[in-house]
Amino acid sequence: MKANVLTRYRVMAYITAVWLLVFTGAIVLKYGFDTGDTMLISQIHGVLFIIYVIFAFDLGSKAKWPFGKLLWVLAAGCIPFASFFVEPKVTREARALVAGGATPVEAEA
Predict the structure, then answer these.
(1) CA atoms of 66 and 15, how far apart (whole Å)
(2) CA dihedral in degrees (70, 27, 37, 34; nearest 10)?
């Protein structure tokens, strides 16, 4: 697996996580305080999330993740703050694969 696959995933994980927090804040402002509009923010987050899903699938297929783990990583992109905890764990596991020092099964142990 090439390092750029992991880098693309990491960048999109953080960007998507930040935009999810912005979107969550905008929703709180709109429905909690009856101010603001979420249309542009939701569209930007939606496009970024689609890119995140593509890059996560790419990383998962190259790392030979089981389907459950892939769903877990994708769910992290839907829950505010979750990506900030999941991304470092995924990165640690994937770096072993990038270095070529372990097979996907050994990296999970």
Answers:
(1) 25
(2) 170
CA-CA distance, 71 to 91, in Å (whole number)?
16
> Torsions phi, psi of 105, nearest 5?
-70, -40
83 and 17 Cβ atoms separated by less than 8 Å: yes
Give the C-alpha separation, 68 to 38, whole Å: 32
SS3 1: coil
Q: Token match 């297929």: residue?
A: 61
Contact call for residues 56 and 74 (beta carbons, < 8 A):
yes
In DSSP notation, 61-82 reads HHHT--HHHHHHHHHHTTSTTT
Q: Which of 56, 54, 42 is nearest to 87 (CA)?
A: 56
The answer to whether 14 and 88 have CB atoms below 8 angstroms apart is no
List pLDDT tens digits, range 32-73. Answer: 998 888 899 999 999 999 999 999 999 999 989 899 999 999
Tokens 């909690």, located at residue:
32
